[in-house]
Amino acid sequence: MRRTRRQWVTLGLAAVLLAALCVLAAFWQWHRYTDRQAQIALVETNYSAAPVPLADVLDGPGDVLADDDVWRPAVVVGEYLPERTVLLRNRPVNSTPGFHLLVPLRTELDGEPVVLVVDRGFVPLGQDASEPASVPDPPAGQVTVTVTLRADEPASEHDANQSTVAAINTDQVLASGPDPAGLPQGATVGAYGQLRSEDPAAAVTPVALPRPDTDPGSHLSYTFQWAIFALGAVGGYVALWRRETREASVTAGQLIAAEDPHGGSRPERTRRRRVDEEHEDALVDAASQAPSATRPQASDTSSA
């Protein structure tokens, strides 16, 4: 059954809407791909760079790490505050659940005291999943620490447990530790460091954090897939319309071909031929019976 004009309009609008949604999804994946490429380029540029003094990257208390300096290695000289250690939860390493050890490091920037939170590494869970197996102490006294600088993470809304956090946010980490009032006010920066090395080294060190991930992901392939889906929506509608139009043309051609050149249809011509054949058969039968009916009777000579 052929579709009506209204049905074709409905199908066309549906195909256009589907194609538009697929195009939007393709653009979204493309933007994610370009953002990811920019992140990878930043990691490859900064992570392998030579370490610089912290003062070359941050001006002083209250300064925020610039986007171009993320993943840059920096050297910090100061003193750990192990009594203010805070655990970062729900951040597995190599698919192993555990905690990160966040330890404030007291240093100076431009002659003013500053506290920099250092992620010293990873420790696995203990027998009780609510705490780590052990918490290694950092080196005592003055220490030279090489860290990878990272921007502060947004504060988490789920930090109800004392001495544990769900995000590395300097103000939140310091507030979760014991006696936060003992720290100098405003002596923080909008950044934290991931430990690379310590001098002197600690007697026991946590598991080192892995290198940043530079996998581009599947965003580019998803972009092409959504683009193909968009073309498929429009192409499917066109193919359906062409097929039904072609079938309608073939049906009309068959009707035209069935017409007799003299105006009669093929069934009428067949019926006329059948009548003519029956008339001819009747004439042949009549001709074959005519001699026997008119032939004279032979005389019986035997009785003479």
Structure explained in plain terms:
With 304 residues, this protein is an alpha/beta fold. It folds into 2 domains: 7-45 and 220-241; 48-199, no CATH class. The protein has helices spanning 5-46, 170-176, 219-258, 266-294; strands at residues 52-53, 73-80, 86-88, 98-109, 112-124, 142-151, 164-165, 188-199. Strands 2-4-5-8-6 form a 5-stranded mixed barrel. 20% of the residues are buried.
Please trace the helix and strand order, writing H or E for each element: HEEEEEEEHEHH
Largest beta sheet: strand ordering = 2-4-5-8-6
Integer tally of domains: 2
SS-based class: alpha/beta
Structural shape: rod-shaped
Strand content: 15-25%
Spans of at least 5 consecutive residues with low confidence: 292-304
- Tell how many strands the DSSP assignment holds: 8
Q: In whole angstroms, how far apart are the ends?
A: 89 Å
**C-alpha-based Rg, rounded:** 46 Å
- Give the averaged pLDDT, no decimals: 84
Characterize the largest beta sheet: strand count, sense, and whether it forms a barrel. 5 strands, mixed, barrel
**What count of helical segments does DSSP give?**
4
As a percent range, the share of helical residues equals 25-40%
What can be said about this structure in brief?
The chain has 304 residues and is α/β, with parallel strands linked by helices. The protein folds into two domains: 61 residues; 152 residues, no CATH class.
